[in-house]
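Subject: complex prediction, re-run

Hi both,

The earlier run crashed halfway through, so I resubmitted it with identical inputs.
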Amino acid sequence: MKNSGRLILGFLLVCLVMPAWTGGNKDKSKETVQEPKVTEITIWDFKYGDAAGVQPVMKKIDDLIMKNNPNIKINHVGQANDNYYQLVTAAVQAGNGPDIVMFHGGVQAYEFDNYTLPLDSYISSWRSEISEFSWAYCSENGDASKPVHMVPLTTQGFGIYYNKALFKQAGLDPEKAPSDIDSFMAACEKLKSAGIVPITAGFQGGPFTIDFLFRCFIANIYGADVKDLGTGKQNFAGNAAFKKASELVAEMFEKGYMDPAGTSTPYFMDAGNNFGAGKGAMFVGLLSDVNHWKSFNDALGKDNVGYFPTINFPEAKYKDQQVGQPAGIGYSIMKWSKNPDAAAKVIEAYSRGEGNAIWMGMTGALSPNKNVDIKSLGYPLVAEILKRPFVLDFNTLLLNEDANSNFDRYCAQAFVSKEISIDKFIESCQSMLDRKQESK
Amino acid sequence: MKLKRLKGETIDAYVLIVPLLVLLAVFILYPVLANIYVSFFKWKGIDKPVFIGLQNYKTMINDETFWVSIKNTLVLLIYIPLGALLPILLSAILREGLKGWPFFRAVIYLPNILGYVILGMIFSIVLRKIGPLNSLLTIVGLGSLALDWLSKPDLALHALGLIYGVWLRLGFGCIFFLAAMSSVDESLYDAAKIDGALWWRTFVSVTLPSIRFSIEFWIVLSFIEILARAFPFIYTFTRGGPGFATFTLEYGIYNSGFVAFKLGYASAWATVLFVLCGIIAFFQVKLMRRNING
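This time it finished cleanly. Structure:
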């Protein structure tokens, strides 16, 4: 018994000593063969969760970056879209989190300026590849004189796509997009008479078809002066053209030009899919990310999709004005990152060169990088869209809650449920501008 | 000696309740006090909070959305009586030993198995203009009742009241009231039968008075459910829309706090909700005491 006890004790001692001995050997081997130090860079974004669409593209770019930089390992984390900024806020409160964070351009990124690194020194060698219009938008609080805090991955915009085959079916000239409100309304009437839904729409959960149409109209009405909606020099109240635009949207509903099933259809992604499936003739869509030129070209055929940036009407001065956001989404480096140099390499690889070409080519997102060869994508429509100069989307000038919630609620009240008058709608829209001024 | 023993017992009692008191202080008292404290600050959730006194409350009183949310919440409260009456009636019927009632009980209880988020999503699909409910109504010849439930403000709010305030709570209500009815003295029913009382008279004169305490408790519970627990259902059902049609006080707290990132302002809204719940809790305690005292 005594002997067996000694035996067990001895065995335990050997077990304790062995790992230390072998570990010691390992340490010695490390001294002789120097392995490269691998830096792990963690990225949070709200796009990576799209397992079928965006994730494979980002994985491909991540692999490319890791191949070109063997000392960098990317840990890409897809976060939920719905509560993304709550998660980022929680990380900021904890003072710890990912090295790189994806932001929407504009006010949502500016909220975190104090916690993201100024990137000027990292982008200086390739700054010229992206327009200063975009860099200004990505600078601290949107002020061009201040440091850049975000590298833009996309530009965004809004416009109207149309299905040429359905135009032809209704007896319209498929090569001729409606050039003004009269021809637009006449086209809607002809399409409706032919049993075709004139405007494929999505209002459930948020009336984005109306929201995006207003963004087009507002660019038409204010042109480059749209920025003054954020300074108080321009207003919605008392503007005859804005009132006319509101009345035109109401008329589209009254005449049944908006898809009657729109109230049962979420804009993302059902309404877009409906247009792609040929269930309607026109669609107020996006230029980047989703519901865009690439998805519609792929679904309906490259020769079958037409585009016009807005609906011209006499009260609006800026004919055919294209609306856009200089940065739809982008990446920032958090101040707590222990490896900002490696993180900067990662976001640079996403925004330029081969990585950026993969991003744009596979997702249809529009890149703000001027060096991307648009023609090589093989979609003539995108070149046609990009030939027009953009003016700023008014929505980017609003406070967060107005840009992301209230404007859509006002649109729903005025046009979908019709519980408020056009005058009350204009008053509500003006209140968003007033709140912006008060916040200053 | 006796005093010493009493003191010892008191200390023992305190020792036993200390863990619970600590939990209450950490998870209930502190958040409530912190919320009231934060309501006097301008705070985005990041950066340093700035003390602004009563400004958040002033802004709230002048905020049209706040009053819309109060109105919507009050409209939902109207459904509380129906939400109590229906499960009581059903329980009374089931108690009589309806043939196959265990099956009906299971069917009625089924919604409670699913969470509010799932149910909200299901109903947002069911009530679409081109959705299952309207298709069914059309098939059975009631096409005139096939309405655009979720894009008309009044319809959406009342649909919310009926589904969340009544239907959703029917299953648990039945189980709750069946349990309450099972404790009613059977001799009362026998006496009513001998006196020749019909079903309705027995229900009104025997069942209802016998379960009065349970009904009062249920109503208080319903107030809390509508005031402070409806958010997950509304979020997936209508997102507070169309417009602000189903935008409740609770939804406003979420919107101010996590869409606008005005945490101080959201705290002011939450303080109002706390006060409302506090008033209801006060009456609940009063009612319970009245019942205990006889």
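The longest helix of chain B spans residues 2-38.

- K.
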